[in-house]
Amino acid sequence: MTPFTTVDLTVYPYECDAFGHLNQAALLTLLERARWEALARGPGMDLFDRNGVWPAVRKAVIEYRAAAFARDVLRVETTVAGRGTTSMTLRHVVRRVSDDAPIADAEMVFVCIDRLGRATPIPDEIARFLGPLARPSGAGGGHEPIRVPAGDVELSVDVRGEGLPVLFVHGFPFDRTVWKHQLAALSRVRRIALDLRGVGASGAASTADGYALERYADDLVAVLDGLGARQAVLCGLSMGGYVLFELLRRHPERAKALILVDTKTEADSTEAKRGRDELTLVAERHGQDAVIERLLPRLVAPETLAAQPEVVDQVREMARRWPVPVLVGALRVLRDRPDSTETLRKIRVPTLVLVGSEDQIAPPDGARAMAQLIPGAECHVVPAAGHLVPLEQPLVSSRLVADFLQTVH
Ligand code: MLT
Q: Residue 174 Cα, ligand 1 centroid: separation in angstroms?
């Protein structure tokens, strides 16, 4: 992601509190100054007036990382982290110029509104200024995935950075962009995120039995082999976790550490199996959109449904990247997967378990129990998140993952 703009701003004495620290509200103003600068240096201040629209802040998530003081010069790097039809997400990274210390990270979601305050599509002129829509679905800007052969298919894999390999495995029915915030935010590790077979740009299996837990697990090994990584930190979300459990049964030596996100050990109950069969019928008769509309209320927290339209948009887009036969194959895999309790008991590598406080599919109690099966595992329940912690609470989850990775040697 190339910086959209980089601006140096000096902290004024009146922006500091009684202890001489840059005040937290003043930092917000500083970010606003950086955005105005970007406009002033770019298309001019009247870009929005001319188009009869205005960007309204919908959400601001800020992580204050260190104190700044009067006369410090702060470098504010601003990138467009995502763009939807009516919304856009800007990411600000603030560092002190003198010692390069990280001062704050922020993510701001804007919705384009008209003069009556109604959400409205981003006009072309503004869209051009913001740059191309990040592919395939939101942030992650302009990163070309590579192709890695895996048995009968070729997989599409996003590889970024250098260092300890961390392999990210998405769940159902998502794709590698579910990790877009972690791929962008983590540093000093080699982030590897694949689209599972049949999903998005990854090749589809030629036969119906091409979708099996063993195949998915062997695909992960093929990706690691293809990238020359003997071991990796394995990070799986939900079904991604089930695939990791299979990988641990087949190739336990490939795991350097584990990050298990919104996942669970137990196999499907009879009722859950029936649900999978019903969903298969929905997919076959009505397609991906019908599947995702059914799943959505259980996938994200009520707060996310109400206040993060860009997350909901992305969930729909990810599901559209699953052709129906791939959905059907994966539903069969989910329905028939084994219980993994014994597999977890054998884990002897550092493990982090993350779960959303509102996760209905893999609830917090199960996550805590799962962590107790693994010696030394840490478990964190992330507030105001459902089944998609990395997307719903990106800053918190990236920070927890970054802190955990620092402990892995
Ligand atoms: C997933 O996110 O991968 C699915 O929710 C897993 C499941 O339904 O068991």
A: 10
